[in-house]
């Protein structure tokens, strides 16, 4: 039996007295009794009815914790570790590794890639053909390469025309001017006539900061492309020299590329000085008029008394010719000037070159 029984006062089975002051046969002695039908003589016991065992009354027990739902579950990483400082440090190292980095989960093994089966010869050839570009792809690549090559060549050509020709021509013109001045300083006399391409004078345009040698002829390779200004001195285009008593001293020069000495002559204003320096003299002209556009075949601009210049009779004139618009040679621009002073070198430079 699991229930406890109270002790009797004596060992007699029929003893009706007890330490609790009530006989055993008294049904109220234990509140309804554990025994039903107990006789006074104590010899017989009626049918025994055991009490209902209740687990709650057998022993104390710790109640089970309530079940948590999926939302109420808290990850173990958010729960602060118990124990002292050392335990917390160990827990932090387990979560983040020794150097603070994220620790790889040890529970999930790394998936190893399964080795691929070798391809058959037919499949390998099929994949090789699939990787090979088609005719359309090859054609588009070829056309693209042609366009790229053409663009690069055009860029190089433009760079050559607009930059390198100027660099080279200016260097050649500076050398020619230096050689000419050295000859003058050394007393080397000019012959009466000059060979094509031979320098014989210097042109000064102070307003444009231009100083360029003047050579005989208008040949591109010998004169103009070398950065110099050419004198119209051949055939039907032959013009007078500066020291002539009357006449028109005609000059040609590039407006763009190859030194471009006449690039800004369109900015000259009436009265601006134009000076021709020779071995013996300075010839000073004043800008008189400009013809912005005319045909390349209009050779009348080089006449002794040029048409459309505004001059009325013979005199000592200068004519500057160049291409227009810029970077083209479709038309010509003409600038005229009239001589106002002939000054020997022995008297020094004219005022136009001193101021």
Summarize the structure.
By secondary structure, the protein is of the alpha+beta class.
List the helices and strands and how they pair.
Layout: H1 55-58, H2 85-96, H3 121-131, H4 135-185, E1 199-205, E2 210-216, E3 229-231, E4 247-252, E5 273-277, E6 281-294, E7 316-324, E8 331-344, H5 351-354
Parallel strand pairs: 2-3, 4-7
Antiparallel strand pairs: 1-2, 1-5, 3-4, 5-6, 6-8, 7-8
Active site: 254, 323
Biased composition (Basic residues): 86-102
InterPro entries: Sortase, Sortase_Class_E, Sortase_dom-sf, Sortase_E
Task: Looking at this protein, list some descriptive labels.
355 residues, alpha+beta, Sortase, Chain: A, 8-stranded mixed β-barrel, elongated, disordered N terminus
Describe the structure in your own words:
With 355 residues, this protein is of the alpha+beta class. Helices cover 23% and strands 18% of the residues. It is built from 5 helices and 8 strands, in the order ααααββββββββα. Mean pLDDT is 79; it is low at 1-45 and 105-111.
Q: Helical proportion?
A: 10-25%
- CATH topology annotation of the domain at 171-354: Sortase, Chain: A
Structural class by secondary-structure content: alpha+beta
Order of helices and strands: HHHHEEEEEEEEH
Query: Mean pLDDT, nearest integer?
Result: 79
Helical run tally: 5
Shape: elongated
**CATH uppermost class of the domain at 171-354:** Mainly Beta
Distance between the termini: 141 Å
- Provide the CATH architecture of the domain at 171-354: Beta Barrel
β-strand number: 8
Residue share in β-strands = 15-25%
Quaternary structure: single chain
Strand order of the largest sheet: 1-2-3-4-7-8-6-5
What would CATH call the homologous superfamily of the domain at 171-354?
A: Sortase
Low-pLDDT stretches:
1-45, 105-111
Largest beta sheet, briefly?
8 strands, mixed, barrel
* Spatial extent as radius of gyration: 61 Å
């Amino acid at each position: 039996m699991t229930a406890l029984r109270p002790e009797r006062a004596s060992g007699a089975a029929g003893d009706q007295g007890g330490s609790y002051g009530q006989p055993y046969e008294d049904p109220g002695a234990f509140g309804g009794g554990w025994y039903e039908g107990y006789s006074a003589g104590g010899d017989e016991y009626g049918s025994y009815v055991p009490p209902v065992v209740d687990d709650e009354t057998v022993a104390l027990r710790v109640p089970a914790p309530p079940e948590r739902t999926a939302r109420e579950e808290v990850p173990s990483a958010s729960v602060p570790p118990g124990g002292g400082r050392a335990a917390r440090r160990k827990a932090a190292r387990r979560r983040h590794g020794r150097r603070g980095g994220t620790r790889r989960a040890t529970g999930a093994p790394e998936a190893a890639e399964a080795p691929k089966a070798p391809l058959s010869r037919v499949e390998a050839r099929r994949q090789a053909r699939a990787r090979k570009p088609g005719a359309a792809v090859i054609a588009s690549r070829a056309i693209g390469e042609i366009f790229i090559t053409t663009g690069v060549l055009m860029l190089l050509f433009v760079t050559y025309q607009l930059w390198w020709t100027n660099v080279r021509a200016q260097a050649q013109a500076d050398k020619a001017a230096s050689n000419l001045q050295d000859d003058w300083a050394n007393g080397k006399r000019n012959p009466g006539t000059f060979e094509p391409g031979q320098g014989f004078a210097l042109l000064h345009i102070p307003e444009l900061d231009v100083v360029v040698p003047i050579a005989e002829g208008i040949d591109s390779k010998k004169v103009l492309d070398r950065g110099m200004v050419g004198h119209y001195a051949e055939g039907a285009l032959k013009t007078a020299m500066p020291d002539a008593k009357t006449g028109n001293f005609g000059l040609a020069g590039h407006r763009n590329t190859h030194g471009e000495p006449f690039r800004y002559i369109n900015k000259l204003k009436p009265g601006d000085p134009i000076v021709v320096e020779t071995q013996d003299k300075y010839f000073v002209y004043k800008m008189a008029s400009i013809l912005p556009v005319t045909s390349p075949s209009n050779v009348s601009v080089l006449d002794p008394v040029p048409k459309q210049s505004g001059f009325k009779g013979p005199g000592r004139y200068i004519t500057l010719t160049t291409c227009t618009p810029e970077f083209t040679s479709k038309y010509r621009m003409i600038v005229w000037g009239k001589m106002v002073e002939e000054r020997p070198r022995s008297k020094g430079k004219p005022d136009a070159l001193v101021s």
